[in-house]
């Protein structure tokens, strides 16, 4: 690979058999499939997990978000480690960390330790995924020559992204047996991935350099603080100093991280890549698209089970509408990318996504699952036109070409956006649900203090946010609770409209960002480097 410095890792493997490309691609797709499935599979099981373990209402959202936040915070680190120590080695380590964490999540004991146990091992699961994904991409790049790499990357991104659809379906089926199986299912997948990795005889290519530990710490701290502030805003209050200390403090730490990286000789993230306007636009479009994409599964799943009285299996089928549109648009977007570049696909995705989410929001209060499918498909198509084209276009603009570093940047953006979206939309959903239920109960003649107490308990229990605790000393009756649960279906649907309109706005902003894309096709970085290198002129005799 032009511009890639190979170290002793390659020399040590000169005598090893040549990489078996099909096996290598299959191994990496099996490995990363776990990371995509786990972004969505837990959402379906959320009500069962909360009920059996007795989690606090904020605890369940942290179970979902700890994975996303850890994945975002350490993704760039995973890409850098793959460059320094060899992608095959990092894939194996990441897979082992991921699957051990998955087993421990499934073995969570009941009682007071349950919440901390589950959140903690979801975070280490995210760390394993952060090691695994960029290293897996680096393997695909290393074993395929430039003339075949485009097709391999399209398959890698397309199939891996589509596997997100399996999460809700698999989660619904497994939850009918036990919710613990949504974690244990990763074990056979990991075993197959490790066996195929060994059979593929993948050589480890290393780059000389050092690890930017201070940069990794600053990134993790900044992201963690900011998401903590957004997520706890409901429990602490938007007028709380703690909320704004976390949000502002996290953003300040991220600003310090950017300033620090500019002065480091071998930074965790090479910020020079943002000088390419197309790459910057790709990153912005991915950010606003991902504000909606992963959070959608959590909110739509809970909406289906609360407002539509759906079972976990039915909720999974409800989400399948999104993936029908997503799958079709992903293929179409890939063809557009190959022929015209990323800009047309990103613009089309922004428009379709904004319109789809807005129309879907308007239908939520009809409380009919089957009437919503055209709008769910349209919203999914908008996301499908964006994710693969923007990700591939960004990777093709790698510096050096350091695919590990550049993929680390784009995936960090994606997962940080998903964590922020889940936190912000969760806070909005809880606040609006609570207000709606209070109005409903007061309209039924309940005293204001009782209505507020019941509304808080009910809204937190169905949204998975806040700081739930049983009502004490308020005179809350069983009849009042039954009235609240009867009313909550429509109140919760109306609250979800705010979330889905917010997602429509996010896709609208993605469209506006796409207008700034310069257009044109981006060749893989080494092809571009070769094109820029002048052909030597033969020396003339004499």
Keywords:
single chain; 542 residues; mainly alpha; Growth Hormone, Chain: A; 20 helices; 76% helix; 0% strand; globular; disordered C terminus
Please describe the topology of this protein.
Layout: H1 8-11, H2 21-53, H3 57-85, H4 87-106, H5 114-143, H6 146-162, H7 166-175, H8 181-184, H9 186-199, H10 213-231, H11 233-236, H12 241-262, H13 277-306, H14 312-340, H15 342-363, H16 373-395, H17 403-443, H18 448-463, H19 478-514, H20 525-532
Helix pairs in contact: 2-3, 2-5, 2-6, 2-7, 2-9, 2-13, 3-4, 3-5, 3-10, 3-17, 4-5, 4-9, 5-17, 6-16, 7-14, 10-12, 10-17, 13-14, 13-16, 13-17, 13-19, 14-15, 14-16, 15-16, 15-19, 17-18, 17-19, 18-19
| Unreliable sequence segments | 1-18, 464-476, 528-542
CATH class categorisation of the domain at 15-212: Mainly Alpha
**SSE order, one letter for each helix or strand:** HHHHHHHHHHHHHHHHHHHH
Whole-number average pLDDT? 80
State Rg.
24 Å
CATH topology of the domain at 15-212: Growth Hormone, Chain: A
**Can you tell me the overall shape?**
globular
Helix proportion of residues, in percent?
A: over 70%
* Biggest beta sheet summary: none
| Name of the CATH architecture of the domain at 15-212 | Up-down Bundle
Helix/strand/pairing category: mainly alpha
């Amino acid at each position: 690979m032009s511009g890639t410095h190979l170290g002793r890792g390659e020399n040590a493997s000169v005598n090893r058999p040549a990489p078996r490309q099909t096996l290598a691609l299959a191994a990496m797709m099996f490995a990363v499939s776990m990371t995509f499935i786990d972004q969505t599979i837990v959402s379906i099981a959320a009500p069962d997990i909360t009920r059996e373990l007795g989690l606090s209402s904020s605890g369940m959202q942290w179970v979902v978000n700890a994975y996303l936040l850890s994945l975002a915070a350490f993704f760039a680190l995973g890409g850098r480690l793959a460059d320094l120590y060899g992608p095959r080695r990092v894939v194996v380590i990441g897979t082992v960390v991921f699957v051990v964490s998955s087993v421990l999540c499934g073995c969570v004991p009941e009682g007071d330790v349950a919440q901390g146990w589950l959140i903690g091992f979801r975070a280490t699961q995210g760390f394993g995924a952060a090691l695994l994904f960029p290293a897996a991409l680096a393997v695909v790049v290393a074993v395929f020559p430039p003339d075949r790499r485009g097709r391999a990357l399209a398959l890698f991104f397309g199939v891996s992204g589509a596997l997100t659809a399996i999460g809700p379906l698999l989660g619904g089926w497994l939850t009918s047996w036990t919710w613990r199986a949504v974690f244990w299912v990763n074990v056979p997948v990991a075993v197959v991935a490790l066996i195929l990795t060994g059979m593929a005889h993948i050589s480890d290519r290393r780059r000389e350099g050092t690890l930017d530990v201070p940069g990794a710490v600053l990134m993790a701290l900044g992201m963690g603080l900011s998401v903590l502030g957004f997520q706890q805003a409901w429990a602490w209050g938007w007028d709380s100093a703690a909320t704004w200390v976390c949000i502002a403090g996290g953003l300040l730490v991220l600003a310090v991280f950017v300033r620090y990286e500019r002065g480091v000789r071998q930074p965790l993230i090479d910020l020079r890549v943002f000088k390419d306007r197309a790459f910057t636009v790709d990153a912005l479009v991915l950010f606003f698209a991902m504000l909606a994409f992963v959070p959608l599964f959590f909110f739509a799943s809970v909406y289906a089970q609360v407002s539509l009285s759906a079972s976990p299996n039915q909720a999974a089928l409800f989400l399948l509408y999104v993936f029908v549109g997503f799958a079709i648009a992903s293929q179409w977007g890939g063809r557009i990318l190959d022929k015209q570049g990323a800009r047309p696909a990103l613009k089309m995705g922004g428009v379709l996504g904004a319109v789809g989410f807005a129309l879907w929001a308007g239908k939520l209060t009809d409380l009919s699952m089957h009437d919503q499918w055209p709008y769910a498909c349209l919203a999914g198509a908008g996301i499908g036109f964006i994710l693969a084209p923007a990700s591939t276009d960004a990777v093709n603009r790698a510096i050096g070409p350091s695919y590990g570093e550049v993929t680390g940047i784009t995936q960090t953006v994606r997962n940080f956006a998903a964590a922020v979206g889940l936190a912000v939309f969760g806070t909005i959903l809880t606040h609006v649900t609570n207000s709606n239920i209070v109005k409903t109960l007061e309209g039924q003649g309940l005293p204001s203090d009782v209505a507020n107490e019941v509304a808080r308990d009910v809204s937190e229990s169905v949204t998975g946010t806040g700081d739930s605790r049983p009502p004490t000393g308020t005179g809350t009756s069983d009849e009042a609770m039954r009235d609240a649960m009867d009313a909550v279906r429509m109140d919760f649907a109306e609250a979800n409209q705010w979330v889905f309109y917010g997602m429509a706005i996010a896709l609208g902003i993605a469209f506006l960002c796409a207008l700034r894309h310069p257009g044109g096709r981006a060749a893989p970085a080494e092809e571009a480097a070769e094109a820029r290198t002048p052909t030597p002129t033969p020396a003339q005799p004499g």
